[in-house]
Specification:
The protein is an alpha+beta fold and 295 residues long. Helices cover 33% and strands 33% of the residues.
Length: 295
């Protein structure tokens, strides 16, 4: 039996980049799939409904053309229904595609996905899972960085990395450390903290390697914990964020764990893969090999 694929297009991703690339991406996938269903959705609910309908036709592969939010929805579907996932990035961040080492330009990524479908190249990666909540492929964060996320989601200008950079500067003015407990299977920390990031992969925020050693195939989550830090401390750390050297600062601590519990309710809101999860507390597990990737 041949490959039965669905192409999920999120036209608004990347300020229309997904819509502009859709026809060319479809043509490339159609060349190597025995059956291709194309679904286009503007809302999360619509996307999920269309994915389920495609699954009911006997789906093997879901190709997501869109940004990290679109990929996040594809991860939920594929992990829950044991369907292989392929990513054709067309957003402003494209953090998962970047972490997985694939092209971040849509047509180059579509060529790579088509070649992998034709050759049968597949691999499994870990996912994080919030207890009682969603899967995530990249990073769960809370504290200063989730406040930045909330601000970014309210901003309409500028686009791409500059939006995150401006949001970071704006949130510095509101900085206030909070009490935080971090518990893993081997230790428990109680401290005043500025932020915490739990990474299955390295990047968030449009290419910031917040968990620079994270490996989505090692069975562990990487934790980057920023302890109490002043505004001046954070200003000093900003230039090192893009290189991953922030983990060398004296007030930054890193951990590795299979399970991470964060609490209590200290006013922080958790985000995962850029989606709002809700207030702490939250527990997160690494689920090894939770999703199969094409490529």
């Amino acid at each position: 039996m041949g490959v039965r694929a669905a192409l999920a297009v999120h036209p608004g991703s990347g300020h229309g980049a997904a819509a502009r690339a859709a026809a060319e991406v479809e043509a490339r996938i159609r060349e190597v799939a025995d059956h291709l269903t194309v679904v286009a959705a503007d809302t999360v609910a619509e996307a999920r409904s269309l994915m389920v309908r495609a699954r009911d036709t006997g789906l093997d592969v879901l190709v997501v053309l869109g940004g990290d939010g679109s990929v996040h929805q594809g991860v939920q579907f594929c992990a829950d229904h044991d369907v292989a996932l392929a990513v054709v990035p067309a957003g402003t961040g494209n953090d998962l595609a970047r972490a997985l080492g694939g092209p971040v330009e849509p047509l180059a990524a579509a060529d790579a996905v088509a070649a992998a479908i034709a050759s049968g190249a597949r691999r499994r990666i870990d996912l994080g899972r919030v207890a009682g909540g969603p899967w995530f492929a990249s990073v769960l964060c809370a504290g200063f960085d989730s406040a930045v996320n909330e601000r970014v989601n309210r901003m309409r200008w500028p686009h791409g990395r500059r939006r995150y950079d401006l949001a970071i500067v704006a949130e510095l003015a509101r900085l206030r450390p909070r009490e935080l407990g971090v518990e893993t299977e081997t230790e428990r920390l109680e401290l005043e903290a500025t932020m915490v990031a739990v990474g299955n992969t390295r990047f968030y925020g449009g290419g910031i390697p917040v968990c620079p050693s994270a490996d989505p195939a090692d069975g562990f989550l990487d934790v980057t914990l920023v302890e109490r830090a002043s505004r001046l401390d954070l200003l000093r750390i900003l230039p090192t964020l893009r290189t991953g050297d922030h983990v060398r600062h004296r007030f930054v601590r890193t951990l590795r764990a299979r399970r991470v519990e964060l609490g209590p309710d200290n006013g922080w809101v958790a985000y995962a893969d850029g989606d709002r999860i809700g207030p702490l507390p939250a527990a997160v597990d690494c689920v090894p090999g939770a999703v199969e990737l094409i490529g």
